[in-house]
Amino acid sequence: HVQLVESGGQWVQAGGSLRLSCQAVGWTYRRNCIAWFRQVPGKEREEVASIYTGNSNSYYTEDVKGRFTISQDNAKDMVYLQMDVLKSEDTAMYYCAAQSGSSGNCEELALYQYWGQGTQVTVS
C-alpha cells in the first residue's frame, strides 16, 4: 500500500524560501515520475515540477523555472521541492503525486495514480 506524505508547507514572506518534502511510504517502484502539483480554489490543478527517477530528468512549469528545484533521494524514497524567491502567486495547496508506470511521460496528469493529502504554502 503506497502513501505519499507531504510536509514543509507554511506561511512565508515574499522573496523567501521553503523546502517541501514528499515521503513515499511503501514505495517499491523505480524509474517513475514523481511530481509536485499545486491548486488554488476555483482553478485547475497545475503541475509545478516533476522528476523521472530513472535518470533524474526534470520538468518545470514556466512560472517557476529558475526559482524551484525538484530533487530525489532514492535511498530514502523522498522527493523534495526547493522553492526560492517565492511570490504571492505561489500561494496554493501543494500536492505530491506519483506514477507506478515507467512511461516517463511526467507531464500527463492522468497517469498519476498516487496522491498525497497536500501541504499549504502561503506567501504574502
Q: Give the rounded overall mean pLDDT.
A: 94
User: What's the order of the H and E elements?
Assistant: EEEEEEEEEEE
- Indicate the proportion of strand residues: over 45%
Total number of helices: 0
Q: What is the helix fraction of residues, given as a range?
A: under 10%
Low-confidence stretches are: none
Assembly category: single chain
State the major sheet: 7 strands, mixed
Distance between the amino and carboxyl termini: 37 Å
Q: Looking at the structure, what is the overall shape?
A: globular
Q: Please report the total strand number as a whole number.
A: 11
* Radius of gyration (Å): 13 Å
Return the structural class.
Answer: mainly beta
Structure overview:
By secondary structure, the chain is mostly beta strands. Helices cover 0% and strands 48% of the residues. A hairpin with a 4-residue loop joins strand 5 and strand 6 (57-60). The mean pLDDT is 94.
Kindly summarize this structure in a few lines.
With 124 residues, this protein is an all-beta fold. The chain has no helices and 11 strands.
